[in-house]
Amino acid sequence: MVHESRFKSGIYYSQSPSKCSIVLNNVFKTHNNRNIFNGVNLVAHSGKICAILGEINSGKSMLLSCLVGGDKVDKGHIWVLGGQPRTKGSKTLTKYIGYMPQEFCLYRTMTVLELFAYFGNLYNINHKFILWRISYYKHIFTLPPINSTIKKLSFSEKRIISFMIAVFHRPRLVVLDEPTIGLDILKKNQIWKYLHHVITTWKPTVIVATNNIEEAFSATKIAYLKNNKIIFEREVEELNRTNPNKSIDTIIEDLYTSLMSTNVEKNAWFNSNESEIPHNKKLSIYKRLYPRSNIWKFKTIIIQNIKFLTRNFWVFMLLCVIPILQVYLHCIYYGKYPKSIPIAVYNQETDCGHDQCKHIGNCSYFSCHFLYVLSQNGVQINYYGSEFSTKNSITKESIPGFIKVPKNYTIAIVNSLTQSSLKERDELLKSNINFEIDMSSNLYIKNIIATKKKLYVIK
């Protein structure tokens, strides 16, 4: 009953698996000007364990990466569960693949329980099934406490956790890159015993890359990768039956020597009808009857990112606190409304040198009223006795601009209000106040212009 309700939503039924879950047809690939594959052919069946045996740097990891869509081949074709990796419809196949790379790809700040919950939510697996699955693994493997942080686990514990994540969602294809490297003999036997168990239950296709000959003979089939090619593929039972009194190393060496010396066609199996390569056929292991929303994936990633930030102080400071601090400092030093803007004033209408313009009660001229209102709106008035000294203050005293009030300004304003039309151009000029501003100070300019518009509305 637990197995049937392990998905949160959606109903699935298993189709009969294809005769060949994986087919590689004449694959070529180069990497960094180095020839990696030179006509690789391979067939893997459902319910079987295929061990890719090869020396170090023979291209085993690259081959597995091409199977799961991590790398692209230069020439040839790859079919995985009826689809081709790195194509438009290949994203639907990723949820049916469990991949364990040779490097650690776990979230170091997560706990064991959080890691299983994270991947379980990505695969839309019910939380009760996640807990049941963890308790089931505890009876098979020696697991650390579920509240242990990944970064505090030992090397072997991390390898076991990586392996369990790869098979956790019961995929149709399990790809393992050196799964038992660095493990003791007990944990190696546990992993291989579990792999033989899963191929008899939900019958996935298991691909294991290894450079250990004895470990390769624990699989059901061996594919020997050497000289950028798959030299031979043989069932392990067949090798043991035809060579009963030979050691494992001797069997592989004799078989390789025999094939090289007799120049046997090593890819004859590929021309048979056994491979059944699909042509432009969408084949899925599970058929979806009800569509599922992708919102739960977005929610899972958001929760994981929040946990990551809260557990990494300096990363949190870098991504969150520092930008907030930058915005705050910018608003403090550059976002305030400018005050006390110095402006030089030359008033030809009256003598402002004796502070006549600073007291509105002692001055009856309109220019005094105008300058007084201007001083009340964030402008610092500096009076000068001549036009030359006023303009000279802009360069010497760093004043952004000056104001020149013409003679008889008050009389010109009164005449413009009482007379219906202005006949003379001089009368019009006398009723204007001249502003000259240094255009290099953009912030001051905008504030002065805004103040002038405000005063115009007041008037």
TrEMBL record:
Q: Domain (ABC transporter): give its ranges.
A: 22-252
What the entry lists under Pfam families is as follows: ABC_tran
InterPro entries attached to this UniProt entry: ABC_transporter-like_ATP-bd (IPR003439), P-loop_NTPase (IPR027417)
Give the residue spans that cross the bilayer: 313-334
Q: Keywords assigned by UniProt?
A: Membrane, Transmembrane, Transmembrane helix
GO molecular function terms noted in the UniProt entry: ATP binding; ATP hydrolysis activity
Q: What is the recorded name of this protein?
A: ABC transporter domain-containing protein
The organism is Aphis gossypii (Cotton aphid)
Q: What is the lineage of its organism?
A: Eukaryota, Metazoa, Ecdysozoa, Arthropoda, Hexapoda
